[in-house]
Amino acid sequence: MMRDIGLGILVGVFIYLLVMGYNILPVAMLLGAGFLLWRFVIQRQLVHTNGKGVVVSNTPIDFADIGGQNAAKKELQEALDFLLHSDKMKALGIRPLKGILLSGPPGTGKTLLAKAAARYTNSAFLATSGSEFVEMYAGVGAERVRSLFRRAREIAKREKRNSAILFIDEMDILGAKRGSNISHHEYDQTLNQLLVEMDGLSTDQETPILVVAATNRAEALDEALLRPGRFDRQVKVDLPDKEGRLAILQIHTKNKPLASGVDLEAIARETFGFSGAHLESLTNEAAVFALRAGETQITENYLREAIDKVMMGEKLDRKPTPEEMERVAVHECGHALLAEVVRPHSVAHISVRSRGNALGYVRHNPKDDLYLYTQSMLEEQIMVALAGAAAEEEILGSRSTGAAGDFSQALNLAEKMLISGMSKLGVVDLDNLGPEKRHEATKEIFEHLETETREVVQRHREVILTLAEILRTEETISGESLREYLQPSA
Ligand code: ADP
């Protein structure tokens, strides 16, 4: 409407100027060029909104297809009941739920939860990502937000759905604290537009829209987004615990032929820290290993090999020299030995095959998922980290750069001890401690642990030599074999 009036006035002015005898050609050409630029550059960006950036799907995902995450599922379902029973809500004067924020590490099932939410509520499902809104041209992001909400309504209507769920992944890119992106105000405008659209959502609207956003940096979001009436439900989607991992493994092996006797619970136990996406990839890799070996069933060995692959990366063809190989074998045996001495039955296996950045590695076998560590546990972990270099020194007479990563890990653990008040300084504020005192305190932690580590290595020198020799030819040693060799000298 406004555009038509403006256009009419413009044409009128032009005719008037023409009648008065002015030469309007340069101005008309300039305006024409401006219009073409707008058409081709800005409009093309907007077309994007209806193009590849948005995924519309009739999602076949159900809450039962999501393993673990029971607390998140329950909380989400409770929130969704608002949408399902909006009449009851309205009768009680409860304001509609407009946004749910799913926060947690990548690959934990946030997208799956949003899809399951759409199915649960019989909603149309549109998915996009925060990065899709970031453009160089001012106003494009904001227009994209507007058109997204419009499109959600259209699709819901066309598919005859009760409501629409708009899923925005990587919300932190779009919804970072305003003013934090110094380079351009485009982000702020886009965020403002999202807030405007969300504020405009009300029960009276024909098609309720629920915005489900996902982020792994909830702390970076603008507070305005988290205010009541916007994303007022926050659901944490954490890494799965052991039971959760088992459930996810069961879901992803349902369509795969597992050999009889495969102990998925053991695999769940050995995969502490894995996300759902890691576990999915693990089951897939195990199936690929079986295929490559020409087998029709997936054995536990393939699953174990897949753990290594997901954890450490692809096996490399990099061939170390015989001297390097000897050093790597001694180094890894040092770690494994110490781990087994301080925590019996904790080594899953030792390997000197190059994978990712590592020339060799020891995979540990956590008994339980642990979220708290005592002082002695931290000290034991430091000793295990120091043992690689200690074994190199004791057996080969010198250290190598291979221990650099171990030392930084040991330093991190020592820092953890400092901030947990486990050093002689007691409870301290690390920021005000000063580098000198900090150094002294860590040094003291290390001094006696290093001595102790060296003593254990010296005591088991012969076992390390034997194991390193086997490793050089066999490339891997299982935890069970390690324990057998260790028995007589223990
Ligand atoms: P996020 O959105 O949290 O980054 P996704 O939901 O996209 O993670 O998950 C990626 C993939 O990982 C899924 O397609 C699925 O195969 C697997 N996955 C992640 N979490 C789970 C889970 N809880 N249960 C089953 N599969 C999962």
Q: Per CATH, which architecture of the largest domain? A: 3-Layer(aba) Sandwich
Query: Regarding CATH, which class of the largest domain?
Result: Alpha Beta
Estimate nothing, just give the exact number of structural domains: 3
What are the secondary-structure elements, in order, as H or E?
HHEHHEHEHEHHEHEHHHHHEEHHHHEH
By CATH, the superfamily of the largest domain comes out as P-loop containing nucleotide triphosphate hydrolases
Low-confidence stretches: 43-52
Structural class computed from helices and strand pairing: alpha/beta
| Biggest sheet details | 6 strands, mixed
* Strand-residue proportion: 5-15%
Indicate the percent of residues in helices.
40-55%
Give the averaged pLDDT, no decimals: 86
Shape: elongated
Bound molecules: adenosine-5'-diphosphate
In which order are the strands of the major sheet placed?
Answer: 1-3-4-5-2-6
Question: CATH topology of the largest domain, what is it called?
Answer: Rossmann fold
With helices defined by DSSP (H or I, 4 residues minimum), what is the helix count?
Answer: 19
Radius of gyration: 30 Å
**How many DSSP E strands?**
9
